[in-house]
C-alpha cells in the first residue's frame, strides 16, 4: 500500500471527526497536513515502500536531459536520455590530494533497474559501506571478486579431472590409467563435466551414480565415487572448490556384493 494514500485516509478520518464536533482550527490543521503529505510524496515518493518489498511505483521516464532520482545513503537511480535506468552510489575513498582536504569522490555502479530492484540496490549499498568501514575500496573488492569467480567458473569438473588424471597417470599402469579416464568419460563427464566444480553438490553426484547402479554396475559406481572424491580433494588443494560432496556418498550407494571364492582347478578332486 503506498505511503500517501494510507496517511491521507487516516488524516481525513480525523478531519471529519473534528469537523463533526465543530473544531474548525483543528480541521484546517489536518487539511494542511494532508496537502503537505501530497507534496512530500510527489517530491520524494517515486517508489512505493511496504513491510515486505520496495518497488518503483511508476517507471522513471526519459527526459530531455539525464537526471537522478535520489534515495538515501548516497544511492540514486540515474536515468539516461535513452531511458536506461542504472543504480549508482557515491562514496569517498583515498588520500586527500591536499593536506586537510577532502577524500577523492568516487562512483560505484550497482546494476540496472528493474533487474536490480530498489531493495537489492540498498542491500548492495550497505555491503559497499561495510567494505568502506573496513578501510577497503568497494570498487576494487568487486573487481577482485569478479575475477576470482570467473576463474572458478572456468574450471569445470572435466578440466580439473583431466589435470588430476595427468598428475596421477605416471603412478598407474597403462591398463589402469586407461580404465580410470574411460570410466570418467563414459559415466561422469557427460553429466557434470561442463559444470564449474565449485557448484557441484552431493545430490547431483548421487543422481549420476544411481544411474550407474541402475544398470547393475554397483562396484563401478563405488569406484567412480572414489575417483570423483579424489578429484574434489585435488580441487580443494588447488583452491578451486571448498568441499568434497562425494566423500559421504559411499553409504548412500547400494552395498557392494561380497566377493566369492573363485573355484580352483583342483576343487572336487579327491586325494
Kindly describe this structure:
- This protein is α+β, with helices and mostly antiparallel strands.
- It has helices at residues 3-20, 24-44, 118-133, 138-154, 157-168, 174-187, 189-192, 202-214, 218-237, and strands spanning 47-49, 54-56, 67-70, 75-79, 85-92, 105-112.
- It has three domains: 3-45, no CATH class; 67-134, Integrase, DNA-binding domain (Double Stranded RNA Binding Domain); 157-252, Orthogonal Bundle (DNA polymerase, domain 1).
- The protein is built from nine helices and six strands.
- A hairpin with a 4-residue loop joins strand 1 (47-49) and strand 2 (54-56).
- The N and C termini lie far apart (97 Å).
- 15% of the residues are buried.
* Count of beta strands: 6
Radius of gyration: 33 Å
> Element order, helices and strands?
HHEEEEEEHHHHHHH
Query: Which whole number gives the mean pLDDT?
Result: 76
CATH topology of the largest domain: DNA polymerase, domain 1
CATH class of the largest domain: Mainly Alpha
Percentage of β-strand residues: 5-15%
Provide the helix percentage.
Answer: 40-55%
Number of domains: 3
Compute the number of helices: 9
CATH architecture of the largest domain: Orthogonal Bundle
| Separation of the first and last Cα atoms | 97 Å
**Quick one: overall form?**
elongated
| Helix/strand class | alpha+beta
Biggest sheet details: 4 strands, antiparallel
Ranges where pLDDT stays below 50 over 5 or more residues in a row are 1-6, 38-54
Task: Determine the CATH superfamily of the largest domain.
Answer: Tyrosine recombinase, N-terminal domain
The largest beta-sheet arranges its strands as 3-4-5-6
Amino acid at each position: 500500500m503506498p505511503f500517501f494514500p494510507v496517511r491521507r485516509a487516516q488524516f481525513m478520518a480525523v478531519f471529519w471527526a473534528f469537523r463533526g464536533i465543530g473544531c474548525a482550527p483543528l480541521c484546517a490543521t489536518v487539511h494542511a497536513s494532508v496537502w503537505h503529505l501530497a507534496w512530500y510524496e510527489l517530491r520524494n515518493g517515486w517508489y512505493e515502500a511496504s513491510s515486505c518489498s520496495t518497488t518503483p511505483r511508476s517507471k522513471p521516464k526519459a527526459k530531455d536531459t539525464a537526471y537522478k532520482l535520489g534515495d538515501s545513503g548516497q544511492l540514486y537511480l540515474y536515468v539516461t536520455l535513452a531511458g536506461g535506468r542504472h543504480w549508482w552510489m557515491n562514496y569517498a575513498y583515498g588520500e586527500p590530494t591536499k593536506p586537510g582536504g577532502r577524500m577523492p569522490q568516487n562512483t560505484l555502479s550497482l546494476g540496472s533497474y528493474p533487474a536490480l530492484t530498489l531493495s537489492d540496490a540498498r542491500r548492495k549499498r550497505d555491503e559497499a559501506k561495510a567494505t568502506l568501514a573496513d578501510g577497503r575500496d568497494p570498487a576494487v573488492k568487486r573487481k577482485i571478486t569478479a575475477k576470482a569467480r570467473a576463474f572458478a567458473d572456468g574450471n569445470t569438473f572435466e578440466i580439473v579431472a583431466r589435470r588430476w588424471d595427468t598428475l596421477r597417470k605416471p603412478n598407474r599402469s597403462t591398463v589402469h590409467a586407461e580404465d580410470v579416464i574411460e570410466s570418467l568419460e563414459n559415466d561422469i563427464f557427460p553429466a557434470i563435466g561442463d559444470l564449474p566444480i565449485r557448484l557441484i553438490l552431493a545430490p547431483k553426484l548421487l543422481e549420476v551414480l544411481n544411474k550407474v547402479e541402475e544398470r547393475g554396475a554397483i562396484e563401478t559406481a563405488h569406484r567412480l565415487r572414489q575417483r570423483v572424491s579424489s578429484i574434489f580433494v585435488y580441487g580443494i588443494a588447488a583452491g578451486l572448490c571448498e568441499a568434497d560432496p562425494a566423500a559421504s556418498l559411499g553409504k548412500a550407494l547400494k552395498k557392494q556384493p561380497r566377493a566369492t571364492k573363485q573355484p580352483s582347478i583342483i576343487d572336487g578332486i579327491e586325494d
